C-alpha cells in the first residue's frame, strides 16, 4: 500500500509513489518513486505471523546509488536500512530481524527527506 499513490499529476514533482512495470520483479511490478516525503512510504498491513518473537524480514530492491529507508514495525522505527544494488536493473536484498507480535502486524518502509530504492517484495520468515 502506498498512501500517496496517484496518477493525475507528475509523481516526481508531486513526490508520490507509484507502481511501474519491471520484468525482473517477482510480480512484474516495482513500487517506485517512494520517499522524499513524510507519507510517501510503502506499507504492508496485516502481516500475519502465528508465533510472536523475532522474524527475519528480507526486502528485494533496485537502486543504482546509495539510498536509505527506515524500517518501521507496528508504528515504531526499528532501524535505517542502507541500500545500493549498483544498477537499476539488478536486484539486491537486505535482511533484518524484527520482533513481531502474534497475529497481525504492520511493516513500513519510509524516508521523509530523500528518495528510497524501488521495491520488489518483502519476505517474512
Overview of this protein structure:
The protein is mainly β. The mean pLDDT is about 95. Helix content is about 5%, strand content about 55%. The chain has a 4-stranded antiparallel beta sheet with strand order 3-8-5-6, with no helix packed on it. Strands 7-4-9 form a 3-stranded antiparallel beta sheet, with no helix packed on it. It starts with 10 loop residues before the first helix and ends with a strand. The chain has one helix at about 10-15; strands at about 20, 30, 40-50, 55-65, 65-75, 75-85, 85-100, 105-110, 120-125.
Residue-averaged pLDDT, rounded?
Answer: 94
Q: Level of helix content?
A: under 10%
Please mark out the parts with pLDDT under 50 across 5 or more consecutive residues, or reply none.
none
Largest sheet properties: 4 strands, antiparallel
Total strands: the figure is 9
Instruction: From the alpha carbons, calculate the radius of gyration and give it in angstroms.
Output: 14 Å
Q: Structural class of the secondary structure composition?
A: mainly beta
Treating each run of at least 4 consecutive H or I residues as one helix, how many helices? 1
Order of strands across the main sheet: 3-8-5-6
Our measurement of the CA-to-CA distance between the termini, rounded to an integer number of angstroms, reads: 20 Å
Strand coverage percent: over 45%
Which word captures the global form? Answer: globular
Order of helices and strands: HEEEEEEEEE
Amino acid at each position: 500500500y502506498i498512501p500517496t499513490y496517484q496518477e493525475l499529476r507528475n509523481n516526481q514533482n508531486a513526490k508520490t509513489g507509484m507502481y511501474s512495470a519491471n520484468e525482473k520483479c517477482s510480480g512484474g511490478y516495482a513500487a517506485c518513486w517512494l520517499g522524499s516525503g513524510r507519507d510517501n512510504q510503502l506499507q504492508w498491513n496485516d502481516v500475519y505471523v502465528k508465533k510472536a518473537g523475532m522474524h527475519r524480514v528480507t526486502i528485494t530492491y533496485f537502486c543504482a546509488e546509495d539510498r536509505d529507508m527506515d524500517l518501521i514495525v507496528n508504528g515504531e522505527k526499528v532501524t535505517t536500512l542502507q541500500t545500493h544494488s549498483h544498477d537499476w536493473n539488478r536486484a539486491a536484498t537486505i535482511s533484518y530481524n524484527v520482533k513481531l507480535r502474534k497475529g497481525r502486524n504492520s511493516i513500513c518502509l519510509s524516508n521523509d527527506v530523500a528518495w528510497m530504492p524501488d521495491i520488489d517484495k518483502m519476505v517474512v520468515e
